[in-house]
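Q: What does the assembly look like in three dimensions?
Context provided by user:
Components: two
Sequences:
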Amino acid sequence: DAGITQSPRHKVTETGTPVTLRCHQTENHRYMYWYRQDPGHGLRLIHYSYGVKDTDKGEVSDGYSVSRSKTEDFLLTLESATSSQTSVYFCAIGGGNMNSPLHFGNGTRLTVT
Amino acid sequence: EDKVVQSPLSLVVHEGDTVTLNCSYEVTNFRSLLWYKQEKKAPTFLFMLTSSGIEKKSGRLSSILDKKELFSILNITATQTGDSAIYLCGWSGNTPLVFGKGTRLSVIA
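A: Here is the predicted structure of the complete assembly.
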């Protein structure tokens, strides 16, 4: 699985609570991404990082923040979870200046009740 | 705004059939086109195309890119039930990979 580990694999949380998802890579890749996948919408980019402490917004960034303090870890935080953020979240590495394929983690299924 | 359109959105075929999946795009400063297969978990990489007119092949799967007409196709010959999956195309341009909504392929015995 290209050395990408997402945690937790599943999470159920209540509306209004903060949630942090973690992505850990062992490939030392500069670029990391967070996507969400919903029926009828495909994969949509939330945020991405092009280096330690370097991040940028994607298509659906509202309600999410990210942090990258180390090359290997990319955190996605929902400051106050809403039901519309119920989704499957995928982390990916690759792309960037190398124009290499993205490789995905196994995803985190988040349910906000 | 970059835009990727896949068609059809879903498809049901019988084993042994040949299928063609389509992907069209509007991307600023095109860099590459990628195809992925997604079964139950993470999307898995199939092909990356950067040059027009050059076919990539892997077994029964093949893909080709037309940069002038702004589309790509993914062909699967002699389909098997194991080909049942969602097939995603993504385009890379000025922004990181932008995906279409995917084509759900179901192959029945």
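Follow-up: The longest strand of chain A covers residues 42-51.
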